[in-house]
Design goal:
Length: 546
């Protein structure tokens, strides 16, 4: 398979029919001077955009309660502030490669980068829930473009010898951003107000727009592709993914298939996505080239990436709930705990390309998944005293595992992807990681709830008033309450019984959280198994002169 030679033209995802007779020029292969500088500015600018888009998922989640209170949204309806963003993001990711060919990379990327900043600021001025949902959806639609476009620029503009460096930069958006998001969100909300979680996008966003404006060359739009678009595929994909994302986000709250709304949406998602698969495999010009999935490394890489999404977003989801519910932490304290998953990655990820030069990349992937899995297994014996100090080392191990696994996995999965398939590969790879996160969070919500009920039933059967230990404990608590202001013995005894029941419920919750970490560890072991089936590509390394 021919090795890609980077082209000077920034219209990097041109239609396959336009590439048939493209020849590399001497200027296209030179990696020094102004062209090399612009190439790296484009990569850094686009990855900065991807980082901001991913950050805005977790940074808002960390401050959701404050936003709900400010705009008068209830707890149930307030979830749509995040859901609307995620639905728009997951729908636009598969469309990005095609729309970039229609409008040109420069125009499409700059327009969405500017829209992302405009609607970020607009979200801070939302007066009610309806306005916030609409603004967040548009922000998600424009922000969703930034993620796959950064990935596409890396695997098409950079030569093979430099791609691992670009992918390491991209890893900062994929793994570092979710980890550091609650830290930034918690600090800004507690010290400045929830509006600043949206204002924080302005300065790095202005830098991003400036870098993209300078580095991406103008190219003509190809509006004729609109008439030739895979509209049946676009329609069924959009309906299917939007329905599926809504089911995953709202299912646990609405009792899954016990809700007619969730049941109807599930049927719509199943029918639409089935039709989408049929259309994509039969049409002459599909929106996404699904045949890439039968390639060994890309197929197993997608599986491992999906499972990584489950654990990556699942752990960021479940830890704050544990710290709030069991330890009573506020958003800033939660952010400080999660910072120890983010900060080490900032130091480690830049070193990964060097490790990829020294070791078989598959060894790095397997080691990364093994450490990531181990970090979750370290949390399976939690107690009521399990707080920030006890979470420190599991978070450090998790950070090392994520840093080691992501960049090599991405490099192996996308090695050998042709220019004409770069858009499809980017869309599929990033969509499946985000979809894995949505599936993981939905599963963890239900799993934690069911396990809490399971442990509560067992503990309740053990804590019986027929047991001497239970009667003794109730008597001790009754005396305690009577010595602290409760004069009526019956009232004191009632409070004692409530206290024992609360302790049982808390212990059941802790045991359920331990089970969720075990669940995440098992998912990562499955990812490790998928990684064992990867074949070593001959041209993946850590960068450097060849």
């Amino acid at each position: 398979m021919a090795t890609f030679q980077p082209a000077a033209n920034s219209n990097i995802v041109a239609a396959p029919a336009q590439r048939t007779n493209v020849k590399a020029t001497p200027a296209a292969t030179e990696m020094h001077g102004a062209s090399g500088l612009k190439m790296w500015i484009a990569v850094i600018g686009s990855t900065l955009g991807a980082f901001m888009a991913v950050l805005n998922i977790q940074i808002v989640n960390a401050s959701l309660a404050d936003i709900q209170g400010a705009i008068g949204a209830g707890t149930d309806d307030g979830g749509w502030i995040s859901t609307s963003y995620l639905i728009a993001e997951i729908v636009v990711i598969p469309l990005t490669g095609w729309l970039a060919r229609v409008f040109s990379v420069r125009t499409y990327l700059l327009a969405n980068a500017i829209l992302f900043l405009v609607f970020s600021v607009a979200c801070a001025f939302a007066a009610n829930l309806q306005q916030m949902i609409v603004l967040r959806a548009i922000q998600g639609f424009s922000g969703g473009v930034l993620i796959p476009m950064a990935f596409t620029i890396i695997i098409t503009m950079l030569p093979k010898a430099k791609q691992s460096i670009g992918l390491a930069l991209f890893a900062l958006s994929a793994t570092f951003a979710p980890a550091i998001g609650p830290t930034i969100g918690g600090y800004l909300t507690e010290n400045w107000g929830w509006e600043y979680i949206f204002y924080v996008n302005l300065v790095p966003g202005a830098i991003m727009v400036g870098m993209l404006w300078f580095s991406l060359e103008s190219a003509p739009m190809n509006l004729g592709l609109l008439a030739k678009g895979d509209w049946p595929g676009i329609f069924t994909m959009a309906i299917g993914l939007a329905s599926l994302q809504t089911v995953l986000e709202e299912g646990n709250k609405d009792d899954w298939f016990g809700s007619p709304f969730i049941l109807r949406l599930s049927v719509i998602a199943a029918v639409s996505l089935t039709l989408f698969l049929i259309i994509e495999l039969k049409t002459a010009h599909p929106l996404l080239n699904l045949r890439l999935l039968v390639r060994r490394n890309f197929g197993f890489g997608i599986v491992a990436n999906f499972l990584m999404g489950i654990a990556l977003y699942g752990s960021v989801f479940i830890l704050p709930i544990y710290l709030t519910r069991i330890q009573g932490y506020n958003s800033e304290q939660i952010g400080m705990v999660l910072a120890w998953t983010g900060i080490p990655q900032l130091l480690l990820i830049p070193l990964v390309p060097r490790l990829m030069k020294r070791f078989d990349v598959r060894i790095l992937i397997i080691a990364g998944f093994a450490l990531f899995a181990a970090s979750n297994f370290m949390n399976v014996y939690m107690t009521a005293d399990y707080a920030s100090d006890q979470l420190f080392w599991p978070n450090i191990v998790r950070a090392i595992g994520q840093a080691l696994a992501f960049t090599p996995l991405t490099a192996v999965a996308t090695a050998g992807i042709e220019r004409e398939n770069a858009g499809s590969a980017s869309s599929l790879f990033n969509m499946m990681r985000n979809l894995g996160g949505a599936v993981g969070i939905a599963m963890l919500q239900t799993f934690q709830q069911k396990r809490e009920q399971f442990h509560s039933n067992i503990l309740t059967n053990s804590v019986s008033t027929f047991e001497e230990a239970t009667r003794t404990r109730i008597a001790q608590l009754t005396n305690y309450f009577m010595n602290h202001g409760v004069t009526d013995q019956a009232a004191a005894q009632h409070k004692a019984v409530i206290a024992v029941a609360g302790r049982v419920r808390e212990q059941a919750n802790i045991m359920a959280f331990s089970d969720t970490f075990y669940f995440l560890g098992v998912a990562l072991v499955a990812a490790l198994v998928a990684s064992l089936l990867l074949k070593k590509p001959g041209h993946v390394d850590g960068g450097g002169a060849h």
